[in-house]
Amino acid sequence: MRLPVRPRPAPAPRDLRLDFFRGLALWLIYLDHVPSNVLNVATLRNFGFSDAAEIFVFISGYTAALVYGRVMRERGVIIATARVLKRVWQLYVAFVFLFVVYLAQIAYVAQRFQNPLYAEEMNVLRFLDEPDVTLIQALLLRFKPANTDILPLYIVLMAAFPVVLWGLIKRPNLTLGVSLAVYAVARLMGWNFQGWPAEHMWVFNPLAWQFLFVFGSWCAIGGLDRLEPVLRSRIAVGVAAAFLLASLLVVLSWSVPALEGLVPDAVGELIYPISKTDLSLLRFLHFLALALVVAHFVPSDWSLLRARFAQPLVLCGQHSLEIFCLGVFLSFGAHLVLVEVSGRLLTHVLVSVGGIIAMVALAALMSWYQENEKRRGPDRAAGGSA
After folding, report:
1. Is the per-residue pLDDT at 208 higher than 70?
2. Residue (of 284, 356, 225, 359) closest to 58 by Cα position
3. Rounded Cα–Cα distance for residues 305 and 313 (Å)
4. Which terminus of the chain, N or C, has less C-beta within 10 A?
């Protein structure tokens, strides 16, 4: 089955905002994954209702639609579906690799330091008790060690993406409406994917988080053009900024004694709990407000995106899967250093900055390798034909 092929203009320049902010999200996720890290006070979750997870999921949906939407239009549904499923397989293999190495890392540390709390904190104690059953449950994406939950979410969202993408190309607004309906019903009925052990549910409910992913894809398919009047509206930006300020005050009232009682009890009963698992509406609205303000003040051709200081973030964003996996390993290593070596402020800074430097180094190495392979491509092709 092929969709009508429409004449397409020349490809637009790569929007570096996507790479920049996805790289920033990966840095923030790494910092948030280090328990009791002092530098966590500077991450997004302390300034509003949403955090780096929303940025990562939205941009993932946006970029998926950009990449596979063109394939579906030009080469048809079957080829595009094959490409998406190939990516799903890559993600699944990455999760299995991450699971095995991460468990080995935690088990070794727990035994080496005679501290079973490491296994308990990272949610792998069940694996040490029932390794055979736990391994099967992990392969089914039902069992996930701490800090790895967003990767299975991404796998599930991408597995369903061929159908979603076809709908977005044929009937974008209707498809977005169906996604919204699934989100609303899932929240109303309390639906979620079953985890393991049986009393556990998925930390990121795919039935809820799919709406943010689909919304990002809808924006990439053409929705952003429809939203252009809103992005340019000073009134809309002002309302978004006011909402961001209000959410900042609410969040600060949780931790700053001087602001305790700032939120009236009636308002608190109305907005709490602000669920991350089910993507609370306040989290979604906070992300929308943040995205609106950023899109208004940071154009796609912003010169600073190509400045030297931005390159580490851009590089990490361009290799998000590998950098995420590395960040999971590094976050546990940083936690180990803070517990077993030193908990001083300087150590917090060193493990945080050191982890980010390692992530940038890996991203730079991968980019160098890719560029080198591109240069060698024509030479290898010529040698083969001879």
Report:
1. yes
2. 284
3. 9
4. C
